[in-house]
Structures
1.
Amino acid sequence: MARLRVRLVVTADDFGYCPRRDEGIVEAFLAGAVTSVSLLVNGSAAESAAELARRHQIPTGLHANLSEGRPVGPARHGASSLIGSEGFFLGKMGFRRAVAAGEVILPQVREELEAQLSRFRELLGRDPTHVDGHQHVHVLPGVCRVFAEALQACGVRFTRLPLERGVDGCAWLEAPARAFAGAVEQDARAAIGPFVHHGLR
C-alpha cells in the first residue's frame, strides 16, 4: 500500500513590509525554517523584497492587502469604499466593520485584487504560487467569493484557510485577540464552500 505523503509548507507573510523584516525572512528561508513567502505588493519594501525572492529563488505568493497602507489599484485615485479620507485602507478592524455593515463595494475589492495581482507580475515576472490575505481579509463574508472568483480567473490554485483550532480558547491571549481568532476561524469555515467551488486548494 502506498504511503500518504504530507508536505509541510511554512509561509512567511508580510514580505515587502520593511527591509529588516525581509532580511529575517530570507535568513529563515536559507536556514530551511521557511519554505515560501507572501509578498505585500503595496509594502514600502516590495521592490527590494521581489529582488530578494528572485535572487534566492524563494517560492512567492501574493499577500493580498485590503486593510493596511495604500491601494495599488483605481482606489488610490479617488473615492472608494476601501479607503478612508486620507487615502489609506480602513485598517484591520475598520475593514471588517465596513464589510459587516455592507459598506464595502465588492467590485472595488475585485479591482484592487486584480491590480495587486498585476503588480505582483510586474515585480516578479510571473504569477504567484499562492494568494492569501493580509490579516485574513480573504475569508470575510462576500470578500471570499470575490477572492475565489478572481483567483480562479487568473489560474491561482492555492490559498490559506486560517483554521487554527483552539486559539480562541487560549488563556494566554488577551480577550480581543481571542475574539478576533474566533471570528477569523468562523469566517474561514464559511469560506470553504466558495473556495472549493472555484477550485482553490
2.
Amino acid sequence: MGARECPAWLWLLLSLLWLPLGLPVLGAPLHLICDSGVLERYALEGKEAENVTMGCAESCSLNENITVPDTKVNFYAWKKMEFGQQAIDVWQGLTLLSDAVLRGQALLANSSQPREPLQLHFDRAVRGLRSLTTLLRALGAQKEATTPPDAALSAVPLRTITADTFSKLFQVYSNFIRGKLKLYAGEACRTGDR
C-alpha cells in the first residue's frame, strides 16, 4: 500500500489545531507557518486583554515591576543587523516575555483581584507563547540564537523595560508580536531556507 500525501486543506486544519496547543507542526508546509494571520491572531488576543485591563487602573496593578522586552524597533538598525542577531533578539525577547506572563499569572493567582476575566486572558497568552515558541523553532530561530562563545561577546544585550500593570504587560505582549517577531518571521519566510 503506497503512502498518500495529505491534502493542503487538511494540513491547514491540523496546523490550526496543533499550533494553539503548542504542539510542533513539523512537516507542515512553510507557507502555513509563515502566514501573517497566525501572528496577527495572537497579537489581537493580546490587544483584547490590554483593552479589558485598561479600565481597571488601580485594581490591575501587578504589585511589582516585571521585566519585559522593549518592543521599540529601530528599523534602520534592524535591517543592518545580521539574521542570526535578529534571531537572538527575538528568541531572548520571547523567552523574557514568556517568563513575564507566567509571573503575571502567578501574581494574579495570589492577589485579591477578580481572577475570572483576567485568568482567561493569561491562559490564552500562555498558550499563544507556547505556540509562538514552536513557530520560532520551526523557523530555525532557536538554532540561529545559539551562538558560538566568541560571537556572544559581540551580541547586543536585550533591551528591557518594566511593566507594573496587567495592561502594560499585555501591551508589550501584543507589540512584541506585531513588531520584532513579525519582522523576524517575515525575513525568515522570505529567505525560504528556514
3.
Amino acid sequence: MGARMKYMEKEMERLRTENTERVKVAFSASLSASTDVKYIGPYAEATNLVYEHAFSNIGNAYDINTGIFTAPVKGVYFFNFVVFNPYTISTGVRLLKNGNFVVAASDNPPGQDTEDTACNSVTLLLEQGDRILLQLLQNCRIYTDMWKRNTFSGHLLFTM
C-alpha cells in the first residue's frame, strides 16, 4: 500500500509540473470598450478590424493596437467571431491566416426582423509566429455599442 501511495504522489507531482509548464493562450475581445455607438465602414476595400477591448488576453498573443493574433507556439488553435448587423448596409467579416483567406461570416441587410447576427469558427494548426486577423469585407459596415455583440476570440487547444 505504501509503494502505491508513493507512486500516486509522484504521478500527481508530475502532472502538476506538466500543467504549470504548459503554455496558456486565450483571448476574447470586442470592437470597443465604449458604450457609444461606433460605425466602421463601408470602405471600397477590405479593412483590418481592431478589436480594441480585451475581456481577457492570457499569454498576450492578441494585440489590441493592431487586431492581430500572433501564435506564440506551434499548436492547434480555435477561433470564433460574431458579427451583428442592425442596419441597412450588408456586413461581412473574414478571417485571414498570414494574409490568406480562411473563413468568413456575412449577412445581407436585415429584413423584416430589423437585425441579424452571423458567426463562424475555425480550428487551425499554426506555426509559431503565424498571424490571424479579421477584416471587414469591402462595401460592408460593422458597428459596436454598449452590448458588445461583435466579438473575436481564440485559444490554444494543444501544442504540437
4.
Amino acid sequence: MANESRPCPCDIGDRFDYGGRGQDVQVQHIKAYVCKPPASTDKAVIVIHDIFGWQLPNTRYMADMLAANGYIAICPDFFVGQEAWKPSNDWASFDDWLKTRNAGKIDKEVDVILKYLSEQCGAKKIGVIGFCWGGAAVQHLMLKNPHLKTGVSLYGVIRFFEDRSSLLHPTFFIFAEKDDCIPLEQVTLLEQKLKQNCKVDYEVKIYPGQTHGFVHRRREDINPQDKPYIEEGRKDMINWLNKYL
C-alpha cells in the first residue's frame, strides 16, 4: 500500500524529451494539444492526462502514437488552467490539491471537446483513453457519457469510482502488478463487480512486474527488462480502439 504521506505515489518516471508533432489549440475555455493522422479519418480519441497535466511530453507522445495509427488525437487541459502537480510539490498537500481537480467532474469539458471533434474535425466515432487520474476519468465517462464509443483506462485509480460498474461502452482496463497506487485486491474486486453488473464487453489485464505509469512514463531504452510489457500495453490499447471504433 502507499504510505500515508504519499497518497498517490505517482513518480513522474522517465520524462520523455519529446516535442510533439501536433499543435496547441484553444477550444472555447480549454487549451488542448491536437495531432492529426496523415490521411483523413472520422475516428478520434480523447487523451486524458495524469496528475502531471496536459503538457507532459510523455502524454503528447501517446497522442502522437494514436495519430500515427490513424486517429485524430486530442489531449485537452482537464485542469482548465489550474496548475498540474509537480514532482517537487509536497505530497502532504496532495489531497487538498486533488479536491479542486475531480476526475468525475469533467463532463462540461468533455462536451466541449466532443462538439469540437465532430464540428471542426469531422469525427463521427470517438473513444477515450486516460492515464492514472485520467484512467479514473475514463471509468467515469464509460459509466455515463452516451456519445463515446469505447474507452481504455490505464492504471485508473479505482477508489474514485469503486462502487459503480455498469459500463455503457466496451472498456479495457490496464493495470500494473506492482502498482503502489492500486493494490491488486482492488483490481480483483473491480473484476467481480464488472462480472456481476456489466452488460458490455470489458477486459481487465494485469501486466506482470510492472509499476504505476509503465505504459506512458517509462522509456524502453532505460528499462530493457520492461520493454516487452511497455510495448504490449501500447499495442493492446491500440488493438482495443481498432476493434471498437
